[in-house]
Amino acid sequence: MTQNKPSITQRIAPELTPTVEELEAQERHLVFQHFTYDDAWELGSLLVEMARERQAPVAIDIRRGGQQLFHAALRGSAPDNDAWIDRKRKVVERFGAASYLVGTRFRAKGSTFEESSRLDPDEYAAHGGSFPINVEGVGLIGTVTVSGLPQLQDHRFVVEALEQFLGDDRK
Description:
Elements: H1 8-11, H2 20-29, E1 31-32, H3 37-54, E2 59-64, E3 67-73, H4 79-95, H5 99-108, H6 113-116, E4 130-135, E5 139-147, H7 151-167
Parallel strand pairs: 1-4
Antiparallel strand pairs: 2-3, 2-5, 4-5
């Protein structure tokens, strides 16, 4: 017997697309005081818990520098999600901004990332779901990435988790 659980689409409604300014404000707001191995575990565990509650078929990845500190693949995800994670993460590392923000900046100029970036689309994807881990006074030190939902939902899912995590008095 299947239990009725909220789906990710019920929790994160497909509202209007955020503007460049709104996305930039998210990045200014979602800054860590520090980011440790334990923080990666706790943030990753929070994302897994949220995904399970919503039956979201996602893969989750957290990296600091070149090291993968957390990875989980939930029911319904596929190996292709890991490829998307890598492509979105590379955009954050190259541009220093959320993958969705990078794509939105290109669209705001009347183009697309694929048309104008001159980067291999097999290596880079400016689709939502990868967010920079910025530490106050340091800058970009890593990424948190989700893949498995439509790109705006991937982005909002990560932002929601970061807001919850950083709003905790422990941080």
